Amino acid sequence: MFIYIGLIFVIAVSAVHGAVYDDAYYWSRYGYYVHPLSRAIVAAQSSDPCSPNPCGTNTQCNVVGNRPVCSCLSGYWGDPLRYCQRGECSGSEDCPHSKVCRDYRCVDPCVGQCGNNADCNVRNHIPVCSCPAQYTGDPLISCRRIDPQELCNQSPCGSNTRCDVINGVPTCSCLPGYVGAPLSGCRHECESDYECSSSQSCQNFRCTSVCSTGVCASTAICEVRNHRAVCSCPQGYLGDPYVSCRAECDSNRDCPTEKPACIGQRCTNPCNGVCGINAKCEVRGITPICSCPRDMTGDPFVRCRPFDKYDLCNPNPCGENAKCQPGFDNTGKERPVCTCLPGFVGNALSYCRRGECTSESECRYDQTCYNYECKPVCSTLQCGERANCNARNHIATCSCPPGYTGDALSRCYPVPDALIAGNRRGRVYYNKK
């Protein structure tokens, strides 16, 4: 349905999806609006662009250039033609430090602020743009990756230095032959010998060890005197120390009898001052061997003396927990005799162990302490033929068995027609009469 009112057309659409609505769309020189048909007709006839109000909820309408302009009320935001909602802030102080208040909303202030590849950090509601590490440029426009060599283009180093980029950092160092602080400047290490230590000389503006320049022969000794090298052959060597020093010997065959060993390419007698008094020395290869003569004893590196009988037990040839005493063998020749210490038993030549006992009270009633060991008392007593051995209180006694008589230590024999009767004292044997 079309309605014409003056210079304004009102278009009412009354059928949508089979339903009838009273809404109307109308256009005027002020704009294009949607209202109920009755309101649309009133609006079309009105000469005030803001009457009726074409704006949404929580808005205000202002006429600008004969046109209605809708805007949200102060403290509100949204679509002023439809609905404005209360804002979450009125100033940046109402927002977190990382946000800024725009149109009554707390938003990220970094959006669209920095250039390409730039980093943005918010400091107290203010976006701060910067180029990241290894990048350079204007962070508000664009950042680009730094060419490492650029770090040394404007060298931070002093004179007589070189600049190298190490791990992304410009590093300064003095040129060869120069010393000093590379950030401020380097100078020659030396101009004269006196600027070097006593063992060095100034060569090509550098302090150099005078003995490392090859002045002396390889086998010579180099000493420094007043910044100069003085060469000499080692003791026992011959020759010109500035050309070559040769050794006194290369093997024992090159040495005389009085100095039979070639040690350190020098002929020496290794027995000199090595062995003790009365000792003899023999050289085997280059090793001195000290020993006491056959009829003497002692420490060949200290003193050798004639044998005596007490030397038989020094050093002690006996086993552990055993003692040594001078003695004689079956031929009458002196020899060491080993015995276990008191309270110990075993093989005195190898090891003596502590015994079981020192008295019979430490053994069972039917045992006795013999040679520091508990042994059956009957093992130490030999009874006679057919006799029995009885142990009591560590004492062994021999007795003839029932029906026998005689000397239990020598022989027991049967009793003829024996009668056996019992009494309180045990068995008593009677003969028939």
UniProtKB/TrEMBL annotation:
InterPro entries: EGF (IPR000742)
Record keyword ATP-binding present: no
UniProt keyword annotations, A-Z: EGF-like domain, Signal
PANTHER family, per the entry: ENDOGLIN-RELATED, LP13770P
Organism: Bemisia tabaci (Sweetpotato whitefly)
Record-annotated EGF-like domain positions: 46-85, 148-187, 309-353
Signal sequence range: 1-18
Protein name: EGF-like domain-containing protein
